[in-house]
Amino acid sequence: MNDDDLDPRTRRDHGGGLDGAIKRFGGTRADWIDLSTGINPHPYGVAGLQASDWMELPDHGAFERLTDAARRFWSVPAGAAILPAPGASAIIARVPTLATAGRVQINTPTYNEHAAAFAAQGWSVQDTGPAEARVIVHPNNPDGRIWQQADANAPLTIIDESFCDVSPDASLIHLAEKSGVVVLKSFGKFWGLAGMRLGFAIGRPELIARLNDLTGPWAVSGPALRIGTEALLDTIWAEKTRTQLAKDADRLDALLTRQGAALVGGTSLFRLYQVDSATDWQTRLARAHIWSRVFPYSATYLRLGLPPTDGWQRLEAAL
Question: Residue 201: exposed, middle, or buried by beta-carbon count in 10 A (0-12, 13-18, 19+)?
């Protein structure tokens, strides 16, 4: 084990890992409810795919239709360009190359792929202090912290809004045309289609052009282009989904606090609780084939996503 393995800024722990849970606690994937991620358990309906979506290389028109839909949905300013990519993670790995390596400020705890990506490109990762780059996860994962415009204060600022679609009024998308700012969007969380691998980088055209050169041609699949465009245009679904997620988050809070957990924060896609022993709670739930999220930097943090409709009774019984 090296020093990086002990550093919460660069350690790469994630939700998921259900196969490992199955090996330890038994069952099959069909037996389990995975609450370790913040993915909407009620995904956008996938329909209308055509044979050509699978068989043909995506053309310029398909990309243009997707970026036009994204511009409208997120109210992207006219001076910003949009780059679709195969998931936000593909962009996260590349954004450190947009500037000469120096110091990057990433306040912890937060999503750890950012620190790992910058460290891999030779950047020095720090929690506070002056820096040539800054990453703000907005709202933050795992505590749901909301950042302000004044926090986008470094020459290169990455604003990760992977979970911001549940609270669009808080978005900092208007900063996307500001020099040195790149806003990231994830399609997998709010729309519940993480396996489709679709994400977006939004920023000034010169920055987005450099990221485009790094991703190469046809980075997004034909099915992802079609489904993404349809979903971004479906604003009625988005509004209904926000309302339902908020109700479910309140329901989860009520259930967990009755069992002695204290709410720390989160979004309406995931909730972070303080408990007496996170590993004990995770084990108790796992014995009922419900997987949760714990963190290597905290013995008391437990994060839960929202159960599917048929999972509430199982969760209550397990607690």
Answer: buried
Instruction: Put the strands of the sheet holding 133-137 in their side by side order.
Output: 81-85, 199-203, 181-186, 156-160, 133-137, 103-106, 124-126
Angstrom CA distances, 267 to 185, 212, 255, 272, 303, stand at 16, 31, 16, 9, 11
Residue whose C-alpha is closest to residue 207's, from 258, 253, 155, 167: 155
Range of the domain at 148: 51-234
Give me the percent of the chain exceeding a pLDDT of 70: 95
The DSSP output letter for 56 is S
Tokens at residue 166, please?
A: 């549940």
Q: What is the pLDDT of residue 10?
A: 43
pLDDT tens readout for residues 64-75: 999 999 999 999
Domain count, the chain: 2
Residues 16 and 83 reside in one and the same domain: no
- The structure tokens listed for 280 are 């004990």
pTM score:
0.93
Of 192, 213, 234, the one marking the end of a domain is: 234
Residue ranges of the alpha helices (H) in 192-275? Answer: 205-215, 222-233, 235-258
